[in-house]
Amino acid sequence: MTTDQNRMAHPSVTKWQWRRHPRCVGLARAQLRKALATWGLTAIEEPASLVVSELMTNAVVHARMPPGREILTRFVRQDGGVLIEVHDASDLWPEQRVPDECGGYGLHLVEKLAARWGVTERNGIGKKVWAVVVDTSTAPSE
Asked: What are the pLDDT digits (tens) for 57-71?
């Protein structure tokens, strides 16, 4: 379901475009896992995969975009971790809600798993939702 991969000159960055389709959530997760394996960051595969799943799901389900607009993921290797970005063309920013039997756990999960996360404007239309996941097992102890 990828529509395009923009190859970056820097091997520590990978970027993909996706259709706004539920199947793309799993495909984005698989691309992140490949990148983490290449970068030697398999220790953070589980939390990073959960984070990208939540951010992609929000973009697919909740971001109201004009037809033909795609979702972009960008994964950037950082010292001991990865920056995960999900770009979409919706101007509606995600909001944490009180979890209940119908859902609302996604951003709470992202907040728990990520060292930090946020939402920023993009150049042009839409927004970028991002999170940094780090390997806490290799962090220096205090």
From this structure: 999 887 776 666 789
Instruction: Enter the pTM of the model.
Output: 0.84
DSSP per residue, the chain? -EEEE---SSTTEEEEEE-S-THHHHHHHHHHHHHHHHTT-GGGHHHHHHHHHHHHHHHHHT----TT--EEEEEEEETTEEEEEEEES--PPP-----BTTB--HHHHHHHHSSEEEEEE-SSSSEEEEEEEE-GGGSPP-
Task: Return d(Cα 76, Cα 23) in angstroms, integer.
Answer: 23
Is the CB of residue 60 less than 8 Å from the CB of residue 21? yes
Task: Report the 10 Å Cβ neighbour count for 22.
Answer: 12
How many of the other CB atoms lie within 10 Å of CB of 127? Answer: 20
